[in-house]
């Protein structure tokens, strides 16, 4: 066996040992944090569940709107409104859904089509934002639970000092260290979920802006078609 192979095996073993020690350390600190660590963990797990669902939904709602607008204009030119409606029905994305609602009312006039686009655009925006309120709730709730656990831990630490009838550095430092664990975990959970929340808001703003811009182009295309 060559030296390089031995070195690689040793590195792999050391990495596994470090990983196991890290997991064990986190488990130990979680247990030391007390009962408030469980609701904080609940906030993290459920919040990540909503984040995964929103990521999947926004991925399906995102589309190349510029390319789609060109396709809709070509469909209007070649086959009229009905051809454009079929294209929207066979295309996945928020802009396609909004276009479909507007084109269904195109026979009633441009004003009716524009109102339908605005109304369905608001519905689509609500669909994109669904679930964000729960992520926002867990962002606020996790650190509050952490602070509550810390206050409880501090009370227990002072009770231990009172029972010991002396101010021992080990009693004070140990109690405060355990008390602050819930705050630490609560803040970490809040930061993780906040990063996801900001990312989703950015994605939604981009999708809505693309929908508004492309909707204007659709109305212009319908106006040009009516003129002809």
Which keywords apply here?
single chain; 228 residues; mainly alpha; 7 helices
Put simply, the count of helices is 7
Q: What's the average pLDDT?
A: 81
Level of helix content?
A: over 70%
**Beginning-to-end CA distance, first to last residue:** 81 Å
Portion of residues in beta strands equals under 5%
Whole-number count of domains: 2
Give the overall shape, derived from the CA principal axes: rod-shaped
Which runs of at least 5 residues are low in confidence (pLDDT < 50)?
none
Q: Report the biggest beta sheet as strand number plus sense, adding barrel if it closes.
A: none
Tally of strands: 0
Whole-angstrom Rg: 28 Å
Secondary structure category:
mainly alpha
Element pattern in H and E = HHHHHHH
Would you mind describing this structure in some detail?
By secondary structure, the chain is mainly alpha-helical. The chain folds into two domains: 1-32; 34-227, no CATH class. It has helices at residues 3-33, 37-61, 65-89, 94-104, 110-129, 132-164, 169-227. The longest helix is centred in the C-terminal third of the chain and has 59 residues, at 169-227. The model has no long low-confidence stretch (mean pLDDT 81).
SSE arrangement:
Elements: H1 3-33, H2 37-61, H3 65-89, H4 94-104, H5 110-129, H6 132-164, H7 169-227
Helix pairs in contact: 1-7, 2-6, 2-7, 3-4, 3-7, 4-5, 4-7, 5-7, 6-7
């Amino acid at each position: 066996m060559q030296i390089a192979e031995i070195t690689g095996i040793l590195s792999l073993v050391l990495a596994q040992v470090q990983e196991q020690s890290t997991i064990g350390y986190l488990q130990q600190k979680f247990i030391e944090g007390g009962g408030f660590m469980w609701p904080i963990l609940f906030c993290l797990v459920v919040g990540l569940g909503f984040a995964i669902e929103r990521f999947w939904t926004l991925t399906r709602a995102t589309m190349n709107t510029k390319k789609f607008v060109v396709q809709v204009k070509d469909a209007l030119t070649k086959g009229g409104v009905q051809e454009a409606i079929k294209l929207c029905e066979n295309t996945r994305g928020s802009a396609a859904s909004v276009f479909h609602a507007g084109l269904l009312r195109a026979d009633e006039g441009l004003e009716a089509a524009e109102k339908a686009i605005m109304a369905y655009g608001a519905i689509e925006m609500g669909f994109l934002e669904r679930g964000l309120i729960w992520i926002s709730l867990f962002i606020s709730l996790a650190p509050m639970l952490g602070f509550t656990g810390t206050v409880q831990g501090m009370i227990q630490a002072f009770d231990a000092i009172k029972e010991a009838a002396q101010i021992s550095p080990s009693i004070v430092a140990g109690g405060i260290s355990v008390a602050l664990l819930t705050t630490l975990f609560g803040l970490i959970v809040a930061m993780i979920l906040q990063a996801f929340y900001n990312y989703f808001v950015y994605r939604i703003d981009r999708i809505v802006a693309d929908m508004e811009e492309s909707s204007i182009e659709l109305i212009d295309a319908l106006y040009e078609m009516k003129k002809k």
